[in-house]
Known about the structure:
305 residues
Amino acid sequence: xxxDPEITAGSWLMVGTLGLVWGxxxxxxxxxxxxxxxxxxxxxxISFAALITAFIWRLRGGGMFTTQVTDWPRLIWVSMLSAAxxxxxxxxxxxxxxxxxxxxxxxxxxxxxxxxxxxxxxGERMTLRRTFGFLIGFSGVLLLIGPAAFASSGAALExxxxxxxxxxxxxxxxxxxxxxxxxxIDPIGLSAATLMFGAVLVVPLALIKEGMPPxxxxxxxxxxxxxxxxxxxAAGLLRILxxxxxxxxxxxxxxxxxxxWSVVFGVTLMGEPVPxxxxxxxxxxxxxxxxxxxxxxxxxxxxxx
Length: 305
C-alpha cells in the first residue's frame, strides 16, 4: 500500500476509541489477575481473541490478500511483531521493571514510528511541527507518570528488563510500518493471522513458566473473555484499519492517550488518588496531538464547515 494516508472523522473516532479501550484494559486486567496467573491471563486473552477472529474470518470466506499481489514473508513478520514477540518481551520485563517505566516505554512507540515512517511510508514525512508536537505529547506522559518512571525497581535484571520494554515498543513501531506497506489485504484475515501467531507462542510460554492452570471461576472466565473480545480482538482490528487507512504516525497518537485514560479510570472507578499533574499532563498531551496533526484537524473542520 503506497497511497498517502487518508485521515477522516472516522479515523479520529477510531483512534480515540482505541485510547479509551486500551486505557481501561489495565483496570480489567487487574481484576483478571485475581483469578489467574499473569501469563495465563495473557494466553487466555490472546487465545480467545484468536478463536473468535478466526471464526469470523472463515465465515467471510477465509481470504487473505485481495489481489494477485501477495507478500507472505512480510505478513508473517507483521504477525510476529504485532503480538507474539512484544507479548513475550513485556511478560518477562514486567518481572524486573516498574509499571511506570512500562507505560513510558509504550508511549515511546510514537517517537520510534516518526523517523521510520519518514523513510519508509509515503506521505508521512517528519516535519518540524509534527516532531515538536510528538515531543510535547511525550513530555505530558512523563509529567503524568512522574519520577516513578525512572525510579529503580531494585531488581537485579532491571537494565535488561528496561531494554526488553523498549524492544517491545520497537516491535509495535516496526509492525505498524510493515503493516502499512502490505499489499491489499483483508483486515479480518490480517487480524486473525496476527492473533493466531501470537497464541502459538504465548500459550506454550505460559505452560513452561506456570504449568497447567487451575479451572478459574465463571467470573474469572468472563473477565478474560472480555479482555479477549474488546481490547484484543475488536481493538486489534481497529488498529489495523487505522494503520491501513490513516497511517502508522496517526495510529501512534493512541500511545499518548493510554496512560491518560488509565489514570482517569483509576481515579474514577478504582478510587485511586488524583495525581496533581493530571490536568497539566492532559493539556500537554492534547496540545501535542493537536500540533502534530494540525493539518488533518484543519482539513476535518474545513470539510465539515
